Amino acid sequence: MSWSLRNSRTFPAREYWDDQWVQTLLRPLAVAGVEPYASRLKAAPDDIVQMFERQEINIAVTGGEAQGAWKMFGARYERTVLIDAWR
User: Fold this and answer.
1) What is the distance between the alpha carbons of residues 78 and 87, in angstroms, rounded to a whole number?
2) pLDDT per residue over 40-74, tens digit each?
3) pLDDT tens figures, 55-64
4) Can you name the residues that pair with 11 across neighbouring β-strands?
5) What's the Cα-to-Cα distance from 13 to each of 16, 18, 26, 45, 71, rounded to whole Å?
6) What is the dihedral of CA 18, 5, 42, 34, to 10 degrees?
7) 1 contacts: CB under 8 Å, gap ≥ 6
8) Which residues pair with 48 in a beta bridge?
9) DSSP H helical segments within 8-87, as ranges?
């Protein structure tokens, strides 16, 4: 988790807020004073802001090693599922 947080994207505040989904989903929270979004909204345009907070990063590990690859994307927690029910 720490590695993911350290290596997640950072932006100048102007670029962070110049995103349709950030405007739609996070700006209302910022305007309502919810942290850390409120601080990001108050940031100067060239201040660097972190895209994700630690509690927003979740990691799922599945499968074998037929094709070792990774991908980082935005998502939200839905549920936990048992992958290997036979074990």
Assistant:
1) 23
2) 999 999 998 888 777 777 777 666 666 666 666 66
3) 777 777 666 6
4) 49
5) 5, 8, 13, 5, 24
6) 100
7) 54, 57, 59
8) 12
9) 13-17, 20-21, 27-31, 37-42
CA dihedral defined by 77, 75, 13, 1, rounded to 10 degrees? 60
Instruction: Let me know if 45 is exposed, middle or buried by CB neighbors in 10 A (0-12, 13-18, 19+).
Output: exposed
What is the Cα Rg of the chain in Å? Answer: 16
Q: Residue 24 is encoded by which pair of tokens?
A: 């739609």
Q: Are 23 and 29 spatial neighbours (Cβ–Cβ below 8 Å)?
A: no
Burial tier of 58 (Cβ tally within 10 Å: 0-12, 13-18, 19+):
exposed
